[in-house]
Amino acid sequence: MTLHSDVAALLAGSGILDVDVDEAVADEHVRGAAYQRVIAVTAASPIRDRDRDRDRAIVATILRDPHEMGSKTAVVALVDAVAMKATGPAEFRQWSAGLLPEIVQLTTEGYREFIRRRIHDWLFYLSIEDGHVPTPVELAEVTDWMQRLLARVSTSPAVLALLAESGSRRKIRNIANDRAGSR
């Protein structure tokens, strides 16, 4: 497959017909924007109705792009969008397990690790949404990004108290403390 045929197939498969494929191939920014549109279309359906093989094929195609930063960004956007629609950690774990083998296409270990950590963060988040109250050790294993997200959106008094006490950054602790106090 060539970059041109990959981009053309992704756009056609998503029903996106208003992107000039030649321009997308020539300009990584146009291509990145096209990938984001493909991701938006792909993520629009509920996770339980998703075709995991199709999602895996889309990720594999995007990750063949020679501009790894752009392809990593698109895959992370898909992970985020699907996680936000997941009904629980088991559903998301099953979906993400199909993607993990594809990330080996990235030559930059940091990008592969970033995607792995983002999946781990969402599994943590979904387990909390499912009623799990994490320990300080479990909290320390997620990124600052996830801790900030939880401090901003969690409705669990126990989770907010944990973040106020054990958050990795002062900002996280302050947000959680303020929200816990206002509840």
Characterize the structure shown:
With 183 residues, this protein is mostly helical. The chain is 73% helix and 0% strand. It has helices spanning 3-13, 21-26, 28-43, 52-63, 68-85, 89-99, 109-129, 136-140, 144-153, 157-166, 170-182. α3 (28-43) runs parallel beside α5 (68-85).
Number of strands: 0
As a percent range, the share of helical residues equals over 70%
Largest sheet: none
Content-based structural category: mainly alpha
Radius of gyration: 18 Å
Low-confidence stretches: none
Give the helices and strands as they follow along the chain. Answer: HHHHHHHHHHH
| Residue fraction in strands | under 5%
Mean pLDDT: 94
Shape verdict: elongated
- What is the first-to-last residue Cα distance? 55 Å
- Helix tally equals 11
